[in-house]
Amino acid sequence: MAENGVKEALVSDHAALYDPNVAQRYFAKFGRIGGCFARIAAELEKENRLNRTETRILGQYLNALIGTFRALNHKYLMTGRAEGAPGLTIDRHESGFPVAQELLMMAVDAQQAAKHLAGMPSVAELRDRMVRIIVGELKVPTALQFALSQRLYYEALQAGGLFQARNGPDVQWLGQEGERRRFLLHWAVWDAQVNLPVVWLMEVLDSGKRPLPEDAYRWPGMQQKLLAQSLAGLKLVTVATGFDKDFDEASPVRLRRITLGPMYSAGFTLQSGPISRVLEDARAPEGEDWALVWTIEDLVSDREEMVKDGWFSSRRRQVFRLDPLTGADTGATRLERMIVLPERPYQVLVEQDPPGLRGIRKFVVGAGGRLIPGA
């Protein structure tokens, strides 16, 4: 059953959070979830699933995602309390995250942040006015509270460092291998197809005359290509093969897609299957009735071949290793799903032991936010 204050939107999968207490519980829930991100990444590095460079880069995107939720929390702080205060719309089916339109609107707001801030009183002035109204008039300064929340929202946008709908590709130099340079290309999107944040990591061996980030001829085209193919519906082997064909001097030797979500919550989302029963039967207290899924898809080059490229020339071509059992379906070398959940839902999950969740790696959030690898 949907939590009181969650109103169905015109699109059945979407819901508007119009009640102020419900909206704050939603952001508090994601605040706790976000507090686990760095610990999860550190655990993956400890298990050699990520190296130090990858953990650092992933951490940057995770921190940006946390910053985006903080900014949205400011924007919707007075939902249902102040006249004209907006309400957050979330995707309640197989996502649990704000709808992609929220990120697009945030990008538009960021372009006008300086203009809005220039016309607003400072934080100190707004707080001073609020105190005078509380003490002198014995009233709740609702309008000023709303103005302060919007001031903090635009300040967060102006400061930057947030997870946007499209976070363009960047380059990390990894070293020299013979005559070729090894780079790690990384970028992230808020994938509208699944309404989830997704981080991409691609290792490339490059033989170009100029290093990629300094190559004004090749690098812009690569950036556009990568963003255009950052879709949940595309298999990794499709993305990597297309890149390999389009850029002769850059050979993708590894590609990973890390999907952060869905977030399931008995109070906010609609779910089916075993996770629904787990959350329902757990009857966990507020703030602990959730589960977050991470999916890591990994594609690795098996070998490199030289293929004819015209009458008198040839070029390198990667042959990717696909999982012999699921590769045709997943387009990846391996695929791993992980689920993160508080102690009470985890206890119920262990008791019920549903077949559909047996092969998923579990992480348990204990007291004080401690992350415990589960069975």
Walk me through what this model shows.
With 375 residues, the chain is an alpha+beta fold. The protein folds into 2 domains: 6-159, no CATH class; 166-373, no CATH class. It is built from 11 helices and 12 strands. Strands 4, 5, 6, 7, 8, 9, 10, 11 and 12 form a 9-stranded mixed β-sheet that branches. Strands 1-2-3 form a 3-stranded antiparallel β-sheet. The longest helix is centred in the first third of the chain and has 27 residues, at 20-46.
Put the structure in a nutshell.
It is built from eleven helices and twelve strands.
Query: Stretches where pLDDT falls below 50 for ≥5 residues?
Result: none
pLDDT averaged residue by residue: 92
Q: Can you count the helices? A: 11
What is the ordering of alpha helices and beta strands?
Answer: EEHHEHHHHEEEHHEHEEHEHEE
Structural class, please? Answer: alpha+beta
Give a short account of the largest sheet: 9 strands, mixed
Range of strand content: 25-35%
Distance between the termini: 30 Å
Q: What proportion of the residues is helical, as a percent range?
A: 25-40%
Our Rg estimate from Cα atoms comes to 23 Å
